[in-house]
Amino acid sequence: MGWEGWAVTERAFQVDLRGVVDLLSRHLYSSPRVYLRELLQNGVDAVTARRAGEPDAPARVHVETPEHTGDGTLRVHDTGVGLTEAQVHELLATIGRSGKRDELGYARHEFLGQFGIGLLSGFLVADEIEVTTRSAQGGPTVRWVGHADGRYRVEPAARERDEVGTTVVLRPRRDAEEWFATDTVVELARHYGALLPVELRVGDTPVTGDGPPWSRAYPTPALRRAALNDYCRSLFGFLPLDVIDLDVPEAGLRGVAFVLPHAANPTVRATHRVYLKRMLLADNVADLLPEWAFFVRCVVDAGELRPTASREALYEDDLLGHVRETLGGQVRDWLVALAESDPEALRRFLRLHHVGVKALAVHDDAMLDLVYRWLEFETSSGAMTLAEFARRHPDARYTPDVDEFRRLSAVAAAQGIGLVNAGYVYDAEIVARLADLDGGVKLLPLDPGELTTRFGILESGVELRLRDFLRAAERALDPLGCTVVLRDYAPASLPALYLTSRAAEHRAELAESRAQADPLWADVLGALEPALAADRPRLVLNHANPLTRRITTLTDPELIGLAVQALYGQALLHGRHPLRPADAAALNRSFLGLLDWAAPAEPEEHA
Ligand SMILES: Nc1ncnc2c1ncn2[C@@H]1O[C@H](COP(=O)(O)OP(=O)(O)OP(=O)(O)O)[C@@H](O)[C@H]1O
After folding, report:
1. Rounded distance, CA 358 to CA 371, Å?
2. Mean pLDDT over residues 405-430, rounded?
3. Ligand 1 contacts CB of residue 46 (under 6 A)
4. Residue 287, class by beta-carbon neighbours within 10 Å (0-12 exposed, 13-18 middle, 19+ buried)?
5. Distance of CA 116 to the CA centre of its chain
6. Could you give the residue ranges of the DSSP H alpha helices within 362-401?
7. Is the CB of 123 inside a 6 Å radius of any atom of ligand 1?
């Protein structure tokens, strides 16, 4: 069959309205409750449009619930610009057509709406939408009735409206009646519309008041702070530690950040309440601030940020990126200023939110300086700031491992080596960056192996006398891969210390993976071992300790072996080192062996 007989015609897409409504209700909007938001938004936009030409025109949106109307319908009246008959055909009956775009089709920034689909959300809760409208441009009052199946009718209204403006009427569908109860409607209107720049009422209940609490005029700063505290408490349920004013003129953004009065989980991103042109967008917007700012919750109103089509999230664009950066900067500046103006408040803040500040300090010099001067770290001389610590210990060391700090801080302190616990999140990066500070602070990592060289060497006479003891001790620990040294050190309460150097730790890991690896790989690993073999972990016996001293007086090599293995096990446990099966076995053996020495087992009697 050929194409000769075909006439090529241009056709228009057909739209199945039911499909579109289904798309909106199931996939775009998270809940049918947005119907009220869309109606309020249209009312407010119509008022905005009218006041552009008529600045003194009334700015009212009035909602009547079925309880008020008495005929089962919900009505939204506005004193907006209204629509002419031609506009009704063009705007109300064309999906995707919006009167809020300019000639080039861009959203006009003074309006909330832009997509030309909002009115359809009425079909989430009603099968019929009726609009009665009288245009500010003159002409008769027009009535438009649209149905969820796509039919619509336009006719002269039975009665002329007294005033310019529009009334939208919804008759709830059976399954949607809950969304029309007066309490629910008041709650929804407050939720979305409490800050709208019009006089909004539901029945006689006023919804809007004096606008955003952060931009109202207050007689004194103290009264403003009290009002913002109250606002925060009613919104988020906490009394803020402080309130930070936020302002990004390029995005038409103003608002406040409330500093949390309790520690927050830094892995959970704080969420913020965002209004766009005074209409609530959402109260769970996470990407308004940088991730590190988890210690504040913000409420902002922005004129120029864009919503996604669902109006439930911010559209990610360059402006949002800029806002995020600028707000991050404002929170940071507040912190720096606090260090100058109210160190006590800063300390309180840091006690709660040190993790966020540390995260900042990794990239930001001013924050690094703040951490250095104000944040207390755990050190071998107690909790203190790094600045104070560096002053006291010009040759200080740090360890990037909390367990190692616990193990070694007393020993290090007893030997005059200042040790900082840099084992928590961000600590190691911060310590490494201290050299970037003015005056360059040098903090080196501690190699635990280095500690033995600082322990007091015994007098040569003593060492000589204990030669046999040391030999027996060495033999007892050799199968466990550990060498023995005897030193004199503080604290005297410590009988022995198990020290691994970094190289020895590496070697232990190597041996472990070799034991688990296949033969070929084990050979490769084996070839690496001799290079590291020289550096074995050490059991440093403390000659200053009475128990150890008593053990050194033993002469029987077997008994020495048992006692030294007991010290070895104790040192491992004390230092929270992992116990390998061989270590646990040695510990058991030594315990039993010592028991046998103390109370030799009776030969068992056979009946
Ligand atoms: N109360 C009203 N008064 C005057 N015009 C209205 C009113 N409600 C709707 N309109 C007109 O109908 C058009 C379509 O409204 P609709 O709510 O579908 O889309 P929108 O508000 O333009 O955009 P969005 O989908 O973002 O809400 C509007 O652009 C507006 O011109």
Report:
1. 7
2. 87
3. yes
4. middle
5. 35
6. 365-374, 386-392
7. no
**Of 207 and 353, the one with more pLDDT:** 207
**Nearest residue to 494 via CA among 423, 579, 567:** 567
What is the rounded distance in angstroms from the CA atom of residue 446 to the CA atom of residue 433?
16
Q: How far is the CA of 92 from the centre of ligand 1 (A)?
A: 7
Q: 562-575 pLDDT, tens per residue? A: 999 999 999 988 87
CATH 3.40.710.10 is the classification of domain 375-446: no
Pair of tokens at residue 356: 């966020």
According to DSSP, the residues that pair with 75 across neighbouring strands are 64, 169
524-545 average pLDDT score: 70
Residue 362 has pLDDT above 60, yes or no: yes
Q: Where are the alpha helices (DSSP H) in 419-556?
A: 427-433, 449-452, 460-465, 467-477, 502-516, 519-533, 546-552
CA–CA dist 91, 110 (Å, integer) = 18
More confidently predicted of 392 and 206: 206
- The more confident residue out of 114 and 247 is 247
Domain definitions of the chain by residue range:
17-206, 221-341, 375-446, 455-500+537-598
Whole-number average pLDDT of the chain: 88
Domain 455-500+537-598 has CATH 1.20.120.790: yes
Q: Is residue 532 scored above 60 in pLDDT?
A: no
Alpha-carbon distances, residue 207 vs 69, 247, 524, 565 (angstroms): 19, 26, 76, 78
Task: Decide: 78 in ligand 1 pocket, CB within 6 A.
Answer: yes
| Residue 12: how many other CB atoms lie within 10 Å | 5
166 known ligand binder:
yes
181: confidence class by pLDDT, cuts 50, 70, 90: very high
Decide: 173 and 126 in contact? Cβ < 8 Å.
Answer: yes
CA atoms of 490 and 455, how far apart (whole Å): 9
Q: Is 526 in the pocket of ligand 1 (CB under 6 A)?
A: no
Tokens of 424: 């928590």
Cα 422 to Cα 380, 425, 543: the distances in Å are 12, 8, 31
pLDDT surpassing 70 at residue 87: yes
Class of domain 17-206: alpha beta
Name the CATH topology of 221-341: Ribosomal Protein S5; domain 2 (3.30.230)
Is 31 annotated as ligand-binding? no
pLDDT band at 105 (very low <50, low <70, confident <90, very high): low
* Cα Rg, the chain, nearest whole Å: 38
Q: Is 308 annotated as a binding residue?
A: no
The ipTM (two decimal places) reads: 0.98
